[in-house]
């Protein structure tokens, strides 16, 4: 099959879904453009800050994308390109898009609070604690997985690593210029893009050839600073400028596929059972996470983006639209690997992982536009690693938020049972350091070791986020079936996968066994707690209806 047909077909389907299904969701959830958002009602200039849609789209998309829609589809290509492509398209529209959009709307209606706090409001404090522990452990795995992937990419492409470091300096200058010096966004953007081009050129001319261990330390030092700094000085500007990188890469890849017209060289469908415990269900649905549905997205939607949304009408663009764009990126990834897989994929994976394989395929397509192959490959590697780095700093910041909530829980903005130990541990510097140290321990191995548990934990987090949205919609008296159908499916996928991980790693990798067992217990306890509340609410509703009926008689 021609890869162009797949790309164009997916694009048309995603546009139709955004217009039709996205608008239907907004209507069912009561999205109201006249309602003030938490960015205004809770404005503090640090976390809550009204942000222009173009800037917030850049931040949100940068945060959720990362290397996930590249690594997942490429790793799952062993099943064939057809099941991977179908899951990306169906998942993005009816699973991931609903999950991301719903998390954002639910957070907006709870003063910009996180999914954990939404669970507390609609299920109970014990459920919130269970979710917080689960989410924090999952974020540790996210940071470990993406730090490992970025470090490996920088070793294989030193120029990309150098340019990424220069981007950090550029982002700080951009943030100060736009938010503190009053330079118009358009002027700042023009100079920012020029600065990015200069940084890319300097990285190509003066690449830093460092070991993976050194890159890991540099990355973790960066995310420590990014986690504690105000959003306007580093997080927002870096994400906004990086979004232009991805837009440029996706346009170049799109045009490259149009002119190159690659064929799908790998098999369309290999089989349901590949041996060694590799069954299409559940492996496909936890391996392709960020390209179809990702629990991490709910933490971004409710943790940072909902606090910066300037109008409820833009929730559809930021929440639902970003997920569909990410799905399109995942389709590009499967086309690139399907073309180069015939003879080069094993070598490319060994040299730099899935990002290197994607860069090889996409750079090949870009040569049809008259671009140099080596520069194109370095540019693609830089773009994906820059977004993975964005996922890193956002995940670390969210991990810090959640750790602080666990250690020093609050009620009515006052700490519950305050004491000196809690105050010390919940300090933002200490909370960030603990989060990074735990993630660094997990990141010491290969991404191949971390990714299975990352995918499973991430998808279970998605199921739990859908559970939280369901609880909110039930209290609002709104329909929930657009949420509950994907929720039940994701619970089935992840419980099966956790069981497989525990069984297959017994006596081999006790870290994965321990983390999998902990996540299983936490998610089961939280699910039981939530369904108990649902049952009580249903019973109370039935009793109320019965009393009303009797009074009418």
Automatic annotation (TrEMBL):
First and last residue of the signal peptide: none
GO CC annotations, alphabetized: plasma membrane
Topology relative to the membrane: Multi-pass membrane protein
Transmembrane segments: 86-108, 129-154, 160-178, 185-202, 214-235, 240-259, 279-296, 317-342, 379-403, 424-443, 449-473, 485-503, 509-531
Alphabetical UniProt keywords: Cell membrane, Membrane, Transmembrane, Transmembrane helix
GO biological process: cellular response to starvation
InterPro entries reported in the protein's UniProt record: CstA, CstA_N
Domain CstA N-terminal: 2-342, 349-497
Localization (cell): Cell membrane
Record-stated family: Belongs to the peptide transporter carbon starvation (CstA) (TC 2.A.114) family.
Name of protein: Carbon starvation protein A
Organism (species): Turicimonas muris
């Amino acid at each position: 099959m021609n890869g162009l047909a797949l790309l164009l077909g997916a694009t048309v389907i995603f546009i139709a879904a955004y217009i039709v299904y996205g608008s239907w969701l907004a209507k069912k959830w009561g999205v109201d453009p006249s309602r003030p958002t938490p960015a205004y009602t809770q404005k503090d200039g640090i976390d809550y800050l009204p942000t222009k849609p173009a800037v917030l789209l850049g931040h949100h998309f940068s945060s959720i994308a990362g290397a996930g829609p590249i690594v997942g589809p490429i790793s799952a290509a062993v099943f064939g390109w057809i099941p991977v492509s179908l899951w990306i398209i169906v998942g993005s529209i009816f699973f991931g898009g609903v999950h991301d959009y719903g998390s954002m709307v639910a957070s907006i209606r709870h003063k910009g609070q996180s999914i954990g706090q939404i669970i507390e409001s609609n299920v109970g404090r014990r459920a919130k604690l269970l979710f917080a522990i689960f989410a924090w452990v999952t974020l540790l795995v996210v940071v470990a997985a993406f730090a490992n992937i970025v470090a490996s990419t920088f070793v294989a492409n030193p120029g990309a690593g150098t340019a990424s470091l220069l981007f950090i300096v550029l982002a700080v200058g951009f943030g100060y210029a736009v938010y503190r010096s009053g330079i118009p966004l358009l002027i700042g953007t023009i100079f920012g893009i020029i600065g990015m081009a200069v940084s890319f050129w300097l990285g190509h001319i003066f690449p830093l050839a460092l070991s993976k261990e050194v890159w890991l330390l540099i990355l973790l030092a960066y995310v420590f600073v990014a986690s504690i700094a105000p959003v306007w000085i580093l997080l927002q500007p870096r994400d906004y400028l990086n979004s232009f990188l991805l837009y440029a890469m996706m346009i170049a890849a799109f045009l490259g596929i149009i002119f190159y017209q690659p064929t799908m060289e790998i098999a369309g469908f290999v089989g349901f059972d590949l041996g060694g415990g590799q069954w299409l269900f559940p492996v496909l649905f936890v391996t392709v996470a960020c390209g179809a549905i990702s629990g991490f997205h709910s933490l971004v939607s409710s943790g940072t983006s909902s606090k910066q949304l300037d109008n409820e009408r833009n929730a559809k663009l930021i929440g639902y639209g970003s997920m569909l764009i990410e799905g399109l990126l995942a389709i590009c990834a499967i086309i690139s690997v399907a073309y180069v897989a015939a003879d080069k994929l094993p070598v490319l994976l060994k040299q730099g992982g899935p990002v290197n394989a994607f860069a090889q395929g996409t750079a090949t397509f870009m040569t049809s536009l008259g671009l140099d192959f080596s520069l194109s490959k370095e540019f693609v590697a830089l773009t994906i690693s820059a977004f993975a780095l964005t996922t890193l700093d956002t995940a670390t910041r969210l991990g810090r938020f959640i750790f602080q909530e666990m250690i020093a829980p609050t009620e009515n903005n006052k700490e519950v049972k305050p004491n000196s130990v809690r105050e010390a541990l919940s300090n933002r510097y200490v909370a960030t350091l603990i989060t990074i140290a735990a993630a660094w321990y997990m990141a010491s191995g290969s991404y191949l070791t971390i990714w299975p548990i990352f995918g499973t934990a991430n998808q279970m987090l998605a199921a739990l986020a859908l559970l939280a949205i369901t609880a909110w919609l039930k209290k609002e008296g709104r329909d929930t079936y657009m949420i509950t159908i994907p929720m039940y499916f994701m619970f089935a996928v992840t419980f099966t996968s956790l069981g497989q991980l525990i069984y297959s790693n017994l006596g081999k990798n006790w870290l994965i066994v321990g983390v999998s067992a902990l996540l299983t217990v936490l998610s089961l306890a939280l699910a039981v707690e939530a369904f108990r509340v649902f049952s009580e609410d249903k019973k109370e509703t039935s009793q109320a209806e019965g009393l009303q009926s009797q009074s009418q008689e």
